[in-house]
Design brief:
- The protein has about 260 residues and is an alpha/beta fold.
- The protein has one domain: Rossmann fold.
- It has ten helices and ten strands.
- It starts with a strand and ends with a helix.
- The structure holds adenosine-5'-triphosphate and magnesium ion.
- This is ABC transporter.
- Keywords: ATP-binding, Nucleotide-binding, Transport.
């Protein structure tokens, strides 16, 4: 579902080029829930932006839901995001001048759904906010705002849900409720989840844990024999038999 091959991201800054992502290899299957952990500044959000088609890689390849994002033009990327990806941010990113219902209806309207407002109301109902449709973000609690953002992210039934520290601005109990909801929605829809978090307990709730340090993946949460390197190295017969011993690996990678 998500595949990174030698992915690089280098951005200019006043102090010179910043090598943010330094050759990432990663394969995530459809329906997997994966946490992304690592120190501040290690490149977690940047990786998520590339996977979501919001930032273009400067090297390597990124394939998401069968789309090779590298060569895609802006309009194609926008369509890709609309059709495949839901995103939740730490600070909610709701439009302050729009009601909860209008916020959730945005992606549905962009997708050309005539029933955008009915679907948005359903989506808000699912996150327990059926009684807050006409409230503006400023009239909602933090937890309610994040649930609205979840309703918006899931409204179009995305294959992939990207969440960047979704509980970072919430107190413990509210955060737990939002996370329970996030996992419920992913399970119901069969969505693939990439969840950035600093919370080890939260990371442990995911199927896999990917660790980034200084722009490198230092642990992709898979057994060594199934890592990208082992699965893609050519030639050596010994390695070929390793591949055969793990038939799921290459098949799963193709599916991703
Ligand atoms: N637009 C940009 N231009 C230049 N450098 C950037 C840009 N965006 C991010 N960076 C740098 O890239 C590095 C990785 O940033 P990123 O936001 O991906 O880290 P992170 O792992 O999400 O950190 P945190 O846990 O603090 O959110 C940081 O050193 C940051 O300063
Ligand atoms: Mg970040």
């Amino acid at each position: 579902m998500i595949r990174l091959d030698r992915l690089e991201l280098t951005l200019p800054s006043q102090a010179g080029d910043v090598h943010i992502l330094r050759g990432l290899d990663l394969a995530i299957d459809g329906g997997e829930t994966v946490s992304v952990v690592g120190p501040s500044g290690s490149g977690k959000s940047s990786m998520m932006m590339v996977v979501g088609g919001l930032e273009r890689p400067t090297g390597g390849a990124v394939t998401v839901a069968g789309h090779d994002l590298g060569p895609m033009r802006e309009d194609a990327l926008a369509r890709f995001r609309r059709e495949n990806v839901g995103i939740v941010f730490q600070d909610f990113h709701l439009v302050p001048t729009m009601t909860a219902l209008e916020n959730v209806a945005i992606p549905l309207e962009f997708a050309g759904r005539r029933d955008a407002f009915d679907r948005a109301a359903e989506s808000l109902d699912k996150v327990g906010l059926g009684h807050r449709l006409s409230h503006y973000p400023g009239q909602l609690s933090g937890g309610e705002q994040q649930r609205t953002a979840l309703a918006r992210a899931f409204a179009t039934g995305p294959k992939i849900l990207l969440a960047d520290e979704p509980t970072g601005n919430l107190d413990g109990e509210t955060g737990r409720q939002v996370i329970d909801l996030l996992f419920d929605l992913c399970r119901t829809d069969g969505s693939t989840l990439m969840l950035i978090t600093h919370d080890p307990e939260l990371a442990a709730r995911c199927d896999r844990r990917v660790q980034l340090i200084d722009g490198h993946i230092t642990d992709d949460g898979r057994a060594p024999a199934a890592t990208h390197k082992a699965a893609t190295h050519k030639a050596a017969p010994q390695q070929a038999s390793t591949q055969q011993a793990n038939p799921g690996t290459s098949a799963a990678r193709k599916a991703g």
